[in-house]
Write a structure and sequence with these properties.
Blueprint: E1 7-13, E2 22-29, E3 32-36, H1 43-55, E4 65-67, H2 73-76, H3 79-83, E5 89-91, H4 104-120, H5 124-136, E6 148-149, E7 163-166, E8 175-179, E9 184-188, H6 218-230, E10 236-239, H7 248-272, H8 278-285, H9 293-309, E11 313-317, E12 323-327
Parallel strand pairs: 3-4, 4-5, 5-6, 9-10
Antiparallel strand pairs: 1-2, 2-3, 7-8, 8-9, 11-12
The protein binds zinc ion (ZN).
Zinc ion (ZN) binds next to loops.
Length: 328
């Protein structure tokens, strides 16, 4: 039997976002070529991706598949260009909504976040500014579709040594591809080498309107996904940002510990500020990141939900519809 060798090229693409560059990966095996993630629809990123593919001798239309690890714009913005060439797009089925800027998911998320900000005590004008910023992101996105949904346990049919893992946390609709035999793991933003990944709060899907949807317990899900990955012999991790690395267990343990330390600090903060809103707590905990309210509110809610789930704090919704926390 012929020996098949898998080749992995990391294509580092610039982005206009604070995160810096994003990785796309080109996989080649036995004449099949797969692109994992594709960067935002932004001139310098488009140019870098074109050059990377050209250097590897790959014409975009000859790709066997594009795989999207999750729906964030820095990973999916250029997807439309490939799908218009007829390249199949593989992703978690719920990534589809993220590939339609200004579409129904944006409307659902908009209604959800407006209601969330109101309940968390964000002043009206600040909430509106925050929402406007959120949807500005769609200018780096493009319309596309998921032609081939991938779910937990699926074999990736284009490169059948790869298996699909669902890894909710950083995003709800998030998958990883793992080739156990070759020891290569593509995990999107699940485990990053240099920075901790955010567990973004999202609306639960399937409600009539976004403002009726409960929020996801993203941080708790994220920790569960991390613990699961720590038990697997992943091999080399190819992350969504930063360089590829091995030794994911030690890194995951460190991330879990950092979260536990942060949780203790949040508990202390709630104890010292009884009856505070999530908006107030977010600004107290992250005084230097007040301009990134969407992010710090999401982070704060992650810890409040965790503490509440463990019975250490409780929340109470007032007649004004605003939620306030206190230690039990
Ligand atoms: Zn992401």
């Amino acid at each position: 039997m012929a020996v098949q060798t898998l080749r992995v090229h990391r294509l580092e693409l610039p982005t206009p976002f604070p995160v810096g560059s994003v990785n796309a990966f080109l996989l080649e095996e036995d004449g099949r070529r797969v692109l994992i993630d594709c960067g935002p629809k932004w001139g310098p990123a488009q140019q870098a991706l074109e050059e990377g593919l050209r250097e590897a001798g790959v014409r975009p239309e000859s790709l066997s598949a594009v795989v999207l690890t999750h729906g964030h714009v820095d990973h999916v913005g250029q997807c439309g260009a490939f799908s218009r060439l007829g390249v199949p797009v593989y992703a978690h089925p719920d990534v589809a909504g993220w590939l339609h800027p200004g579409g129904p998911l944006d409307e659902y998320r908009g209604a959800f976040f407006r209601a969330l900000h109101r309940a968390m005590g964000t002043p009206e004008a600040e909430a509106e500014r925050c929402l406007a910023e959120l949807f500005l992101m769609s200018k780096w996105n493009d319309r596309s579709v998921v032609t081939h949904p991938l779910r937990e346990g699926d074999v990736f049919p284009v490169l059948p040594d790869f298996r699909v893992l669902e890894v909710p946390g950083h995003a709800q609709a998030a998958i990883a591809l793992w080739n156990e035999r070759a020891g290569v793991f593509f995990g999107g933003d699940q485990v990053l080498p240099h920075v901790s990944s955010n567990a973004f709060v999202e609306p639960e899907m399937g409600w009539e309107r976004g403002d009726l949807a409960p929020r996801t317990r993203s941080l708790l899900q994220y920790r569960e996904s991390l613990r699961r990955l720590a038990q697997l012999d992943l091999g080399t991790v190819h992350p969504g940002h930063g360089e590829s690395f091995t030794g994911h267990r030690a890194l995951i343990e460190r991330r879990l510990r950092e979260q536990e330390q942060r949780r203790a600090q949040f508990f202390d903060l709630v104890r010292r500020n009884p009856g505070a809103t999530a908006y107030t707590l977010a600004n107290l905990y992250f005084p230097r990141h007040r301009d990134q309210l969407q992010l710090i509110l999401s982070e704060t809610l992650g810890f409040l939900d965790w503490l509440e789930a463990d019975g250490l704090i409780e929340s109470h919704t007032g007649d004004d519809g605003v939620v306030r926390w206190r230690a039990v």
